Amino acid sequence: MPHTLLLAEPRGFCAGVVRAIDVLDAVLDREPPPVYAFHEIVHNRHVVDSFRARGAVFVDALDAVPDGARIVFSAHGVAPAVVAEARARGLRIIDATCPLVTKVHLETRKAARDGFDILLVGHHGHDEVTGTLGEAPERTTIVDTAADVATLAPRERPVFVVTQTTLSVEDTAGVIDAIRARHPAAEVRNDICYATTNRQLAVRTIAQRADLVLVVGSANSSNSVRLREVAASTGTPAYRVDGIADIDPAWYAGVDTVGLTAGASVPDELLDPIIADLRARGVTRIEPVVVATETVTFQPPDGLE
Ligand code: SF4
What we know:
Layout: E1 4-9, H1 15-30, E2 35-38, H2 45-53, E3 56-59, E4 70-73, H3 80-88, E5 92-95, H4 99-113, E6 117-121, H5 127-133, E7 140-143, H6 146-150, E8 159-163, H7 169-182, E9 187-188, H8 194-207, E10 212-216, H9 222-232, E11 238-241, E12 257-262, H10 272-280, E13 285-290
Parallel strand pairs: 1-12, 1-13, 2-3, 2-4, 4-5, 6-7, 6-8, 8-9, 10-11, 10-12
Helix pairs in contact: 4-5, 8-9
The structure holds iron/sulfur cluster (SF4).
Iron/sulfur cluster binds near residues 16, 75, 166, 196 and 223.
């Protein structure tokens, strides 16, 4: 049974998630339900369910939103076509897109305007990638893995590279190396954000000392899924769970040191019952393992005075 718990720091909420949650929270405080949100406000089941209970309705298409209604765009951002449609329908927009995602949109838009072909390193179908792709769909190709690079058709224009913000730091370096090998003159923006980078460094650090790593986060949370992969890449068994209910106590057999972290969309309160349970099982030493101190905050968006 475990005796030591290593707590990764930083872990859990990032500045973009705090801002998006604060936005929807404030709108629900001020306006009668339903309040519509385009896509899940952040990729966490617990957060989304608690907003649903207060009258938030999460939609994946604007058809489901009545004309003139309030709509909040999620932290992952939306394509310009969605913004245009929302405006044309008279929807009252509040845009909770993380400013670091907006930066990727602006880079992509400018690169297209400047005559580049764009390679967007990211996962097909992820909300953020779909939004960024929408900035210049005719000029942009999604590249998921280093193996994808070999299958790309020759580019007619100079190449510009942008990335999803929540990718694996290590895997992305490999994809960018492969792109540079094929397109030595490519202009590369590695847009993996500070929160993703810090959480991956922290989970790698605890995984190197732990016998088991638990990552709290939902299956559709890219950064949570990456945290489990980073932990497992050290050779330590690692599981992603939505909360304590997903933990199989058999995982603790023969384990002395447990590492615990959470994705950027996960409230710290979801870790409390896991920590209490580990104490009850015999953990007497809880050690925060700090790899970075985060001080980033973002201003609220327009329309939310
Ligand atoms: Fe913004 Fe990074 Fe958080 Fe995504 S993970 S919301 S890009 S700070």
